From TrEMBL:
Component of the intraflagellar transport (IFT) complex B: together with IFT74, forms a tubulin-binding module that specifically mediates transport of tubulin within the cilium. Binds tubulin via its CH (calponin-homology)-like region. Required for ciliogenesis. Required for proper regulation of SHH signaling. Plays an important role during spermatogenesis by modulating the assembly and elongation of the sperm flagella. GO terms for biological process: cell differentiation; cilium assembly; intraciliary transport; spermatogenesis. PANTHER family: INTRAFLAGELLAR TRANSPORT PROTEIN 81 HOMOLOG. This is Intraflagellar transport protein 81 homolog. Residues 3-126 form the IFT81 calponin homology domain. Its main location: cytoplasm. Keywords: Acetylation, Cell projection, Cilium, Cilium biogenesis/degradation, Coiled coil, Cytoplasm, Cytoskeleton, Differentiation, Phosphoprotein, Spermatogenesis. GO terms for cellular component: ciliary basal body; intraciliary transport particle B. The lineage of its organism: Eukaryota, Metazoa, Chordata, Craniata, Vertebrata.
Length: 676
């Protein structure tokens, strides 16, 4: 639990939460604060849930959180015994309920974000069957399902594109490279055009080149058509040869066979084909249909994580164990050991399996025979096409094949060696070129520096002196090192031999004593083993009988325990209902009016009266509105007309003012002229 809390605190202190908690402050959070923290984490996964829980009722908060946790496929841990207890703990903000939920959500935040996003589009709305009888509703529902399937396909394509590795940067680089190549090609075409324009009759030569290109393309298409027709002719000849061979075989079969043998062969073929049609192929078809159905069902479901797969595997193992127990129970109840039916059923199942295996072998042999016949026809055709060649037979053909195989292996070996040598030669040649280029560049730089300093040729002399001194020092070191190593190795070997002799002397003495003791113990072990085997055989027979008896008693115990739990749960439910009925009766019969008002019947009666009064007031208000609707609409129309009239008067008044102002200006201008 401490590791779980520490993980939650670390995740909450990181982006995007940044809560700055430690273990003490997180453990001291109250229930409302824990619920708000859980709501913040759910809001990070699905932005629709980023709300303040103080602004909604606790039941609404619990319902919203439970809905989202159900979509995210959260399963309460084993410490929570019942779903009702989990729901109650979620409403009250219980730490044993909230902490595992936070730990589970923070472990897989990115995965849950994706699941919440997909749930918005892939959680199917269940439409009642009676509504689907309407054609319009059925069409809309069909369009809705088609859109959902289209969204699934688009999302899969998007995920494949994300994981395919082709990023936008690579695509942009490819586009830029292609644009550069296009520019280069355009420049080359322009240069060629300029070069061609200087030639005489270049237009005619271009026209002739175009016609030549068209004729070459036509020649290629005709050659392709000719090759296709040759292939068709070759296939037709092969079919003709196969048909002729079948006809010849049928003639031989008719000549050499009798009616009884033919009838027997036909009966065998009919029995085999009827077995394939009636038993084998329908069973395989049914299994394929089931596998396709399960695959379609798996594809229709949302993506599952590794934890979901583990949970499903655990459930499958549990169901398989229950099935095996039920089979054993049925066999013990209805099929005793001394019954012969089990033996007959086993024999029948073995025979059916053998029959299926032989049918598959026969079908495979027929397919192989047909393929070998086709190969034989091809080989015979190839041999006939080779003029003057003699077909080898018997030992000569075997000798020729062995000779070809040995030559082929020798040729492949030599070819691999040549390829390796060629590849290595190319690599070494390229490396030599690079090193030569680098050496020449460095030599040029060094020579330039020496010329600049006035000491040209110094580096070459220095390199020669260093090389000679290095070779001499390496030789001296190698000689001294070899002598030292040899002397040290001789000393070590002598010391090791002496040490091993001294250490192995007491061990050899002990080994002799231990061998004698081992022989004695081996004899005693064989005697005890014989006694153990005889005793174990008797105990094994008793144990098998006791195990069967214990298994039966355990099953009875489990059955009785489940019955007891069911009865106990029913008893608790009845006690709770009886207690609620007694409390309701007590409050209803109580003489205290305040206590009586707490009764559920009184509360519902009061609510019914309030709703009836509210309905009466609303109906009266509706009646008043209906009565005054006509006059009010007339008054609105009159006010609109009055507003239009006043607007016209205002416009006329403004026009009159503008005209009077223009007249005054004209009069003043005339007076000024007269004065002048």
């Amino acid at each position: 639990m401490s590791d779980q809390i520490q993980f939650i605190v670390e995740k909450l202190n990181q982006e995007p939460f940044r809560k700055n908690y430690n273990l003490i402050t997180f453990d001291s959070l109250e229930s409302m604060q824990l619920l708000q923290l859980l709501n913040d984490v759910l809001g990070e996964i699905d932005p629709k849930h980023a709300v303040d829980i103080r602004e909604e009722l606790p039941e609404q908060t619990a319902k919203r959180m439970l809905t989202l946790l159900g979509i995210l496929k959260y399963k309460p841990p084993g410490s929570v015994p019942d779903l009702s207890a989990f729901r109650q703990g979620l409403v009250t903000g219980s730490k044993p309920v909230i902490h595992p939920v936070l730990h589970w959500l923070l472990q897989r935040t990115n995965e849950l974000k994706k699941r919440a996003y997909l749930a918005r589009f892939l959680v199917k709305l269940e439409v009642p069957v009676e509504f689907l009888q309407d054609d319009a509703v059925a069409d809309i529902n069909k369009q809705y399902e088609e859109l959902m399937e289209a969204f699934k396909n688009l999302h899969k394509e998007c995920e494949q594109l994300k994981t395919s590795g082709s990023s936008t940067a690579e695509i942009r680089r490819d586009i830029s490279a292609m644009e550069e190549e296009k520019d280069q090609l355009i420049k080359r075409v322009e240069r060629l055009k300029k070069r061609v324009e200087t030639v005489q009759n270049h237009q005619r030569m271009l026209e002739i080149a175009r016609q030549l290109r068209l004729e070459k393309e036509r020649e290629e298409s005709l050659a392709q058509q000719k090759q296709e027709q040759k292939n068709q002719l070759f296939h037709a000849e092969q079919r003709l040869q196969r048909v002729q061979l079948q006809l010849k075989e049928m003639h031989h079969a008719v000549v050499d066979s009798k009616p009884e043998s033919l009838m027997k062969k036909l009966e065998e073929e009919i029995n085999f084909n009827s077995y394939l049609v009636t038993e084998k192929i329908p069973r395989e078809l049914e299994s394929k249909k089931k596998s396709v159905y399960f695959l379609q069902k798996t594809v229709a479901e949302p993506a599952m994580s590794q934890s979901d797969l583990k949970v499903l595997e655990i459930k499958i193992n549990e169901v398989n164990a229950q099935i095996n127990q039920l089979i054993e129970k049925r066999m013990m109840k209805y099929e005793p050991i001394d019954s012969k039916f089990s033996m007959y059923r086993q024999q029948a199942s073995i025979i059916s399996r053998k029959k299926e295996a032989k049918a598959e072998e026969l079908q495979a042999a027929k397919e192989e025979m047909s393929s070998t016949e086709r190969q034989m026809l091809q080989k015979t055709n190839q041999a006939q096409e080779l003029e003057g060649s003699e077909v080898l037979k018997g030992d000569e053909f075997k000798h020729y094949v062995n000779k070809l195989r040995s030559k082929n292996t020798f040729y492949k070996k030599k070819r691999l060696e040549i390829a390796e040598i060629t590849a290595e030669y190319g690599i070494l040649q390229r490396t030599e070129e690079l090193l030569k280029q680098r050496h020449e560049a460095i030599q040029q730089q060094l020579q330039a520096i020496e010329d600049k300093k006035g000491i040209s040729g110094y580096s070459y002399t220095q390199e020669e002196l260093e090389r000679v001194s290095a070779v001499k020092s390496e030789m001296d070191e190698m000689k001294g090192r070899t002598l030292d190593n040899m002397s040290e190795m001789v000393k070590k070997l002598n010391a090791m031999v002496a040490e091993k002799k001294s250490s192995l002397a007491p061990v050899i003495k002990e080994l002799r004593q231990l061998r004698q003791k081992c022989q004695e113990l081996t004899q005693e072990c064989d005697e005890k083993k014989i006694q153990y085997d005889s005793c174990a055989a008797g105990l094994e027979s008793n144990r098998s009988a006791l195990e069967q008896e214990v298994k039966g008693l355990l099953e009875e115990c489990v059955q009785e325990e489940s019955n007891y739990r069911y009865v106990n749960c029913m008893k608790r439910n009845l006690e709770i209902q009886l207690q609620r009925a007694k409390e309701e009766m007590k409050t209803y019969v109580s003489p205290d009016p305040q206590e009586r008002r707490k009764a559920i019947r009184e509360q519902y009666t009061r609510m019914i009266l309030e709703q009836e009064n509210l309905g009466k007031k609303l109906r009266e208000k509706q009646k008043v509105v209906r009565e005054s609707h006509g006059p009010n609409m007339k008054q609105i129309k009159m006010w609109q007309d009055f507003e239009q009239l006043m607007e016209c008067k205002r416009e006329c008044f403004l026009k009159q003012q503008n005209q009077t102002a223009i007249g005054q200006v004209i009069q003043e201008g005339g007076k000024d002229r007269l004065v002048l």
